[in-house]
Amino acid sequence: MKRLSSSTTIFPNLDSKTIPWDDASDPTDDYNCMGLAVGVLRWWSPPDAPGCVRNPRDFWPASIKGDGILVSAFVEAAGTVGFETCDNAEW
């Protein structure tokens, strides 16, 4: 498996020092970063992910295998609400 030396290799504009953290939203138990990213404000969590404690309010699309926390599972889950993968980084 190829590993990247840093996230800035792929995302050169990603710099946590420049994020206006005072303008960030308050933490919530209602949704997580996946829910915010896909626009479905729920707590997205694969049901059988190792080390995760399930909450009855957790959400995971029934059509997506929920036995791990692989990025590919989250990509598939995002596909259930209309997201698609791109062939390249161009918009």
Fold and architecture overview:
It is a single chain. This protein has a domain at 31-82. The chain contains 2 helices and no strands. The protein has helices at 33-38, 71-79.
Helix content: 10-25%
Write the H/E string, N to C: HH
Q: Whole-number average pLDDT?
A: 80
The major pleated sheet works out as: none
Structural class: mainly alpha
Q: Please tell me how large the radius of gyration is.
A: 15 Å
> Could you list the spans in which at least 5 consecutive residues all have pLDDT below 50?
1-5
User: How many strand segments?
Assistant: 0
Number of continuous helical runs: 2
- Proportion of strand residues: under 5%
**Structural shape:** globular
Please report the distance between the alpha carbons of the first and last residues.
27 Å
Describe the secondary structure blueprint for this structure.
Blueprint (H helix, E strand, L loop, with lengths): L32 H6 L32 H9 L12
Offer a few descriptive terms:
2 helices; single chain; mainly alpha
Can you summarize this structure?
The protein is an all-alpha fold. It has 2 helices and no strands.
